[in-house]
Amino acid sequence: MHASVSSIVYLMQFNRYESHDGRISERDFAESLVVYAGYNSKRRVRMLKRVKKAFKESQVVSYNT
Prior knowledge:
single chain; two-stranded antiparallel ribbon; 62% helix; 9% strand
């Protein structure tokens, strides 16, 4: 049961950022992970800056069920 609930939550979170082609950017993906990690805002901003630096060119992530 827990696995299905978490899958639904992940899908809902993905759909929050989803563009019309079914994919999201790395930054959006990282943000969706960091939001639920429980980090304070300062640490969250620092982590997202690292993602932006690491992925200068925009790549995309898709959700495969």
